[in-house]
Design goal:
2 domains, 76 residues
Length: 76
């Protein structure tokens, strides 16, 4: 085999390998996009806060912080 044949064969293998990777990644992106359209997004749970907690000043902040901590711990 001379050098031209080896170079041609290496370029063919390069094109085949890169083409296969490109096609697989494109299919993966399409599948992920389709699944994201089919499966609905989760809605956050609303935590009811009793009205007596909201009557005193400063309790709104505490209730918001407690709700955020609860949501964070639930997502872990």
């Amino acid at each position: 085999m001379d050098i031209e044949q080896l170079m041609m064969q290496s370029l063919q293998l390069l094109g085949l390998g890169m083409g296969a990777v490109f096609i697989i990644l494109t299919l993966l992106i399409c599948i992920i996009w389709a699944v994201s359209k089919i499966v609905p997004e989760e809605q956050p749970d609303v935590i009811p806060v009793p009205s007596d907690r909201l009557s005193k000043p400063g309790h709104q902040h505490i209730a918001a912080i407690q709700a955020a901590i609860h949501k964070y711990r639930k997502s872990r």
